[in-house]
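Lab channel / #folding
Pinned by the channel admin:
"Please post every new chain as: sequence first, then the structure tokens as a reply. Keep commentary short and put observations after the output so the thread stays searchable."

First post following the new format, from NK:
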Amino acid sequence: MPLTIGTAGHIDHGKTTLVEALTGKNTDRLPQERERGISIDLGYAALELADGTQLSVVDVPGHERFVRTMVAGATGIDLFLLVIDANEGARPQTHEHLAILRLLGIERGVVALTKSDLVDAETLELARAEAEELVPGAPVVAVSARTGAGLDELRAALASVSIERARDDAPTRLYIDRVFTLHGIGTVATGTLWSGSIGEGDELHVRERSVRVRSVQVHDSAVERAEAGQRVAVALPGVERSELRRGDALVAPGSYPSSYRLDIALEPLAEIPSRVHVHHGTANVLARVVRVGDRFAQLRLSEPVVAARGDHVVLRAATTVGGGRVLDPSPPRHASLERMELVERGEIAATVHKPVRAESLAHLGELGGVIEAGGWVFSSTWLEELRAELNERLERADPLDPGIAPPPDAWSGAVVPLLGLERRGAKLYRPGSTAELGAHAAAAAVLEAQLGLEPVKVDDAALGRFLEEQGRLVRVGDGYAVSASAYEQARIALFAECESAGRITLARFRDLLGVGRKTAQVLLERFDADGLTRRVGDERVLRKRGTIAR
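Reply from TO:
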């Protein structure tokens, strides 16, 4: 039964020393951490309890400057190990770390009173009473990492709170907390696997790109498949180290939306300012807080995050000011109190507005009150908004070609047929709509008055196409046209000469029509394009199917 446990507590209260006493591993891996004697980054170790429970330990820094790092390590854990120096008692980061654990919904854990060998019995009892009041219901164990006293009792206490992780069918999700390169392997990303599983050959998405898993390890041991609740390292071939960072999420394709907005139910600890740092997964993103009533807010994020309904976020300014539970991980920009209340009551359909992949909502259960088409789910309100937008574009379309380009989005092919529009070639049209001159009538009259056998420049290409489709002119050359009757006159002259002489030259065609060489040339090229003639050296001959009757 894999579970992840995270340490918490004030600096110098002995978190890293205690983890080493329990696991045999010093989680301070950076040279500067060992030189300074304080944890700066997250550390990891494996711990097997007597009953066979496998724990992945995440050791977090206790200094107030590294609370943001602590939050990144605490997200995704199942249990906490709150460490309190028996002599000093609870200190500022003890309280802040405990508040963060509560905001993240981490309710089960153990309190370790460290350095118990350095205090008298009375001081130890006072520390125990304070801890029991601070964390009601949690086992409190006095330990000494130096002498080993209480370590077995601590392991037993951890086993007593290590209930089996609830299993669900949620797709794979792992938030990256570290990225590095190994010789012969390439880029490796590590994190706590929140849900699903990861195995060799799996295809995952990160930052809207697809990646393939080459191999998987759990605490430096290769495994065929890692399960939710484990600390996981995945090798990702073809990905540069610089392309990934802490805060990115490796997820099953199409499973979780990436969004610049989150609707949350607020859990304030203090006055929440309008600008905060939002901690979700291992991400730390600046955001603007838009309050909606007293209990809700929409977070407008500076960078997109990958979230799911029910996730917890922590809000920090100079210190931790609160948190929240995600109601909608991809909401519309407008945030109304009525909508938030619907969502909080579990009416999931209210979370769907623009199209999302149906498979990405599979873990939310049966959806009602939404439309599904071609694997996409969206609201009827959004469909009407799209209909109004396309109708407005059709109203503005040029009457010479009253069609518009369809939306370029991936959902276009599935959704557009619901709107009652016709697709002709690459454009959308209203049913039965036809091209007409409209406001171009005057320009058409002026152009037609100029047409004859000599080509006339046509500045409006759309008008030229329309008049040609109506049989009122023939386009020749590059942006020129002649009248339909002139084209017919030239065609009859061409056929008559070819039937009598078998072929025709440019010079002969020019003389027959009494025009210049350039005019004769563009007319002959148009006949070639129409498939009436073909060029043989400097002459033209009729194609076999050519006749005088047009």
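NK: The radius of gyration is 37 Å.
TO: also worth noting, Residues 484-501 form the longest helix (18 residues).
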